[in-house]
Write the structure tokens for this entry.
Amino acid sequence: MLAIRFFRTGRKNQPSFKIVVTDKKNPPRGGRFVEEVGFWNPLTKEKVLKSERIKYWLSVGAKPSESVYNLLVEEKIIQGEKIKKHKEKKVLQKS
């Protein structure tokens, strides 16, 4: 199964991310990827996305990770609502 996810590059305390299409089985760090479809630098807020290639891979069946999905919704490449980053805690009822 193919996944679209972040591939961390950059030095310590200076992260930048490639957005890559990879097999879900490959490790997130250092694994091989099929194609690089974008770039994101959270420090400078620079984003470079190849929207046509991302739409192609989504049509073929690649699933984006939650963070990549939120980025694609923010950039209006795909339609939908963002996925909540923090899950709500379950409240235990005392009896």
The first strand starts at residue 2 and ends at 11. The beta strands are 2-11, 14-23, 35-41, 46-49, 63-64. Helices lie at 51-60, 66-74.
